[in-house]
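Quick start: load a record and inspect it. Here is Thiamine pyrophosphate-dependent dehydrogenase E1 component subunit alpha:
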Amino acid sequence: MTEYSTVEARLYASIALVRRAEEVISEIYPSDKIKSPVHLAIGQEYIAAAVIDHLRGSDYASGTYRGHGVYLAKGGDLNSMMAELYGKKTGCAQGRAGSMHLVEAGKGVIGMSAVVGTGIPVAVGHALAIKQQRRNDVVVAFMGDGSTEEGCFSESINFAALHKLPILFVVENNRLAIHEPLHKRWAADTLTERVATYGIPATRFLEPDVLAIHEHVGKVIDDMRTEAGPAFIECHTHRWYEHVGPCEDYDQGYRSLEEGEQWRAKDVYVTLGQSLDEKEKAQIDQDIEASIQAAVEFAEQSPFPAAEELYNYVYA
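Running the structure step on this input writes:
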């Protein structure tokens, strides 16, 4: 594992890997080499980086179909992820899952799902197992604001609170459920306050302050390891690109370019990078570019699954 001189450098490396990997994916995507839809997290990467930096190898993280950042931050293999997007045998799910269903059990990455909200109760199940086994590991469940409208969200929060499970719920609130703005879906923008009524610590971050999120989550997870029970954070953020695919969509009428420009002016990838020692940042960037190029070459040179494997793992 690479050693960095500061927390800022370590977080930047995590954020930069996701940003540059997704930018390269967006460049490749129109060629049809990538065999699955891609939901890019560009602009939101800092949340997963800040939270997962506190996790150990034995901890778990669950993400959504916009999960490249969670997968990579938790230690998922970049080569395996890229090969999975290409539909190759060497992918993390042997080419069967694509971008929306990333999984890396050996690194504690719980299988992701294309169905909104379904990863939440699965993550709670992992937390229940940890408690029953009397381990001091934790689970982090990432979700979008749209997921909080699914019934399993409230059920999972309640169950985790009732049984004091070691799970942190993280809402990446980009204020969009596909193309539907939050103000058309919620009678009141009080998600954090509603969650607090379950008797668990609930905190909202309105700005992309990666260091504040990192500091807060560190304390929360330390407490969780000593049986403090679940906690919740809501991080307001901005999705730079369309719901699915590599293009901007500010011309579609459901959100404004002005809002996008305000968030881009606060881009953590840029601001955090500017705070680093120039030589260290240059080395981080160089290493990331080399690893991404190697991952693309690995994916392109890997074989597709054999035709006779088509019905493997099919039980109905």
